[in-house]
């Protein structure tokens, strides 16, 4: 279905709202605006029902976690409980302003402090800052802490080690922080190659950036050896928290000897995200790195909560105020709702769902790494590619079946990658429908490959010429 533009509903004299009679002195706004008034402003004249039906129709063209499965690997696009939304909209919380005096916002500060304690317990870290505004921002904050730590020790370390299966933001963050990026290859099982790591570390190593489980969904079984190798040369080990949904209640980065990490509140702790935001990327550190955290740092003295600005070794602020407050409220509500046992159950169901899908699909699609996976797994569309149909074509065809595609072409170590993360919120019926759809598409590729190559067929916007779109983008509306 194709929806018209709002201006196409316009009819002269039609209105959606009647303003009350003027109860103040009338003024000549044309004179007061002094030439700033546009004479050619062509606003649509529409009724309320026109407006409601138009924007309702637009909303029905969108797809999100409230519509169905959203299996983007490494994105943890779980359903967001509406209870979180209700709490975040309580007027006493949502109408606050960051410039208000601390004495007026003690309740909110208590919530944030409580969230800090929960994140520290979940992660095994000692101190937390809630300031970073996204996962990538949390990465950058962590790398700036690493940089400041070595500068205070008069050590000019230049290198950050990143596995070849790392998130794309990892090498970008290291480069932004002023480091050389040293990439190391994975072994045949999809894990960090210990020999490659030993060859890469030296007195110039500032940090290793690592996700565990990694982007293949595989837990690094040698994680304590990995952290030990880096620590033996005086380097730090940073944990990318993107895949925390796989380990909550079972493992803690702090217990794996990571020195610092970031969290994705908008992933693991159930806050709506996608399309660029909102996000929240708190950073947790061990005690010896706590002095370098951004200021101000939320603290408690007796029964009062306050912002500590007196931090001499801090990397200073990384955001104008104190963090994305609405996201934190939702994450706090989620943690308090499910509790510690619920977080552990979340992990169990996320791992169960992913392994169920893998077992159902691995015979039809190539499984490049056979090692046990946790909350996500990676298939390859190489067999389908040999029949002339790419992973991109498969992803587009999924849209015709009213389902969202998984992450594709990532991680880069897998050709024609399909990276699937169903999360814990999908039930067996939804999982079975997703499996049947992918198996149907695989059959279509054998019987009528052009059908899949020209997908999608049922969406409001058809397949774009991606080469032309990149070379000649239409930047006007």
TrEMBL record:
Domain Glycine dehydrogenase C-terminal: 347-447
UniProt cofactor(s): pyridoxal 5'-phosphate
UniProt domain Aminotransferase class V: residue ranges: 144-274
Biological process per Gene Ontology, one example term: glycine decarboxylation via glycine cleavage system
An example molecular function term from Gene Ontology annotations: pyridoxal phosphate binding
Keywords, alphabetical: Oxidoreductase, Pyridoxal phosphate
EC nos: 1.4.4.2
Tagged with keyword Oxidoreductase: yes
Top-level taxon: Bacteria
UniProt cross-references to InterPro entries, sorted A to Z: Aminotrans_V_dom, GcvPB, GDC-P_C, GDC_P, PyrdxlP-dep_Trfase, PyrdxlP-dep_Trfase_major, PyrdxlP-dep_Trfase_small
GO cellular component, one term: glycine cleavage complex
Ranges for region Disordered: 450-477
Catalytic reactions on record: N(6)-[(R)-lipoyl]-L-lysyl-[glycine-cleavage complex H protein] + glycine + H(+) = N(6)-[(R)-S(8)-aminomethyldihydrolipoyl]-L-lysyl-[glycine-cleavage complex H protein] + CO2
Pfam families, per database record: Aminotran_5, GcvP2_C
Summary of subunit composition and partner proteins: The glycine cleavage system is composed of four proteins: P, T, L and H. In this organism, the P 'protein' is a heterodimer of two subunits.
Protein name per Swiss-Prot or TrEMBL: Probable glycine dehydrogenase (decarboxylating) subunit 2
């Amino acid at each position: 279905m194709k929806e018209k533009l709002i201006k196409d509903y316009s009819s002269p004299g039609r209105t959606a709202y009647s303003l009350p009679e003027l109860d103040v002195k009338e003024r000549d706004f044309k004179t007061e605006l002094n030439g700033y008034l546009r004479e050619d402003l062509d606003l649509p004249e529409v009724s309320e029902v026109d407006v409601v039906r138009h924007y309702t129709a637009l909303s029905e063209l969108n797809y999100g976690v409230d519509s169905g499965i959203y299996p983007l690997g490494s994105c943890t696009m779980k359903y967001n409980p509406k209870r979180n939304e209700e709490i975040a909209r309580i007027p006493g919380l949502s109408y606050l302003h960051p410039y208000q005096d601390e004495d007026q916002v003690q309740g909110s500060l208590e919530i944030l402090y409580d969230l800090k304690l929960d994140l520290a317990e979940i992660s095994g870290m000692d101190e937390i800052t809630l300031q970073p505004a996204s996962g990538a921002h949390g990465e950058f904050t962590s790398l700036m802490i690493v940089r400041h730590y070595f500068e205070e020790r008069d050590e000019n370390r230049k290198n950050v080690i990143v596995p070849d299966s790392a998130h794309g933001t990892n090498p970008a963050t290291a480069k932004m922080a002023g480091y050389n990026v040293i990439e190391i290859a994975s072994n045949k099982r999809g894990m960090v190659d210990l020999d490659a790591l030993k060859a890469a570390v030296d007195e110039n190593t500032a940090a290793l950036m690592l996700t565990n489980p990694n982007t293949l969904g595989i837990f690094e079984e040698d994680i304590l050896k990995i952290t030990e190798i880096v620590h033996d040369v005086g380097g730090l080990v940073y944990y990318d928290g993107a895949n925390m949904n796989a380990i909550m209640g079972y493992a803690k980065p702090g217990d794996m000897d990571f020195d610092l990490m970031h969290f994705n509140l908008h992933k693991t702790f159930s806050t709506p995200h996608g399309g660029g935001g909102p996000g929240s990327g708190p950073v947790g550190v061990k005690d010896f790195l706590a002095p370098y955290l951004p200021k101000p740092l939320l603290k408690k003295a007796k029964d009062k909560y306050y912002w500590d600005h007196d931090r001499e070794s801090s990397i200073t602020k990384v955001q104008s105020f104190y963090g994305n407050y609405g996201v934190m409220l939702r994450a706090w509500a989620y943690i308090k709702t499910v509790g510690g046992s619920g977080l552990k159950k979340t992990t169990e169901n996320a791992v169960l769902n992913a392994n169920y899908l893998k077992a159902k699909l691995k015979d039809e699609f190539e499984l490049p790494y056979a090692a046990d996976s946790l909350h996500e797994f990676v298939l390859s569309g190489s067999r389908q590619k040999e029949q002339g149909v790419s992973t991109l074509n498969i992803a587009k065809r999924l849209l015709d079946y009213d389902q969202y595609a998984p992450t594709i072409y990532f991680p880069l170590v897998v050709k024609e990658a399909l990276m699937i993360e169903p999360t814990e919120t999908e039930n067996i019926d939804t999982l079975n429908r997703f499996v049947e759809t992918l198996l149907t598409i695989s059959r279509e590729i054998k019987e009528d490959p052009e059908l899949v190559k020209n997908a999608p067929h049922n969406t409001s916007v058809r397949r774009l010429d991606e080469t032309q779109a990149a070379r000649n983008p239409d930047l006007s509306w």
